[in-house]
């Protein structure tokens, strides 16, 4: 692996589920620590890191609304869940000596700074890890879309989508032995084949703005650094 970063500024989308480990809910401190360590290594390479964390390990709006809850209320709860994850990640990173700021799309100034694009860019320039919390701040959206949106707003060169599998497959690799991994896909292929990369709104946003996405396995230690250094891991979704 090269130890020179290929990108100056990245946005990483981490699903809430990535933090729950084997316990199946909430935040596993050990997993949180391992991810924070990987992120710290990327920061030490001199890369500016923006992070968008989901909330699915705590609460999902769609699931709750399927059981009768008002969708908007449920989505606000989902967004609050992302704030909990963001604060947990901030704590884990700062224990490693990494300077961070949580910027929330829903104002809660005792906990996080409000999201202001110029402020986010300034923090990144100063080498602080910016953790975007509360998604887009709007119900009916996802943190995938928030990641695409924020990546474009702060001019990230790439959107890294960390998952549990090592890329995008033509069918579920957990169920089918003959599943084939794609090395590269176009945005249209992802949309037309309904491949599980990110939701369609997020993919469309990236497509309209030519933002490349790398889908890769974050559970293998060192992988975030490898992707940032340009190792051809996972699947690239690009024009
Ligand atoms: N959410 C929302 N608007 C946003 C982002 C998230 O309403 O802009 C809510 C939605 O209810 C979602 C929950 O927050 O189910 C958690 O986010 P997501 O499902 O994207 O988390 P992940 O799957 O990445 O853990």
From TrEMBL:
Annotated GO biological processes are: 'de novo' CTP biosynthetic process; UDP biosynthetic process
**Name of this chain's protein:** Uridylate kinase
Location(s), subcellular? Cytoplasm
Explain what switches its activity on or off, per the activity regulation comment.
Allosterically activated by GTP. Inhibited by UTP.
Q: Which GO terms describe its cellular component?
A: cytoplasm
Could you tell me the keywords of this UniProt record?
Allosteric enzyme, ATP-binding, Cytoplasm, Kinase, Nucleotide-binding, Pyrimidine biosynthesis, Transferase
The record's family statement is:
Belongs to the UMP kinase family.
Primary gene name: pyrH
Organism of origin is Plesiocystis pacifica SIR-1
Residue ranges for the region (Involved in allosteric activation by GTP) are 21-26
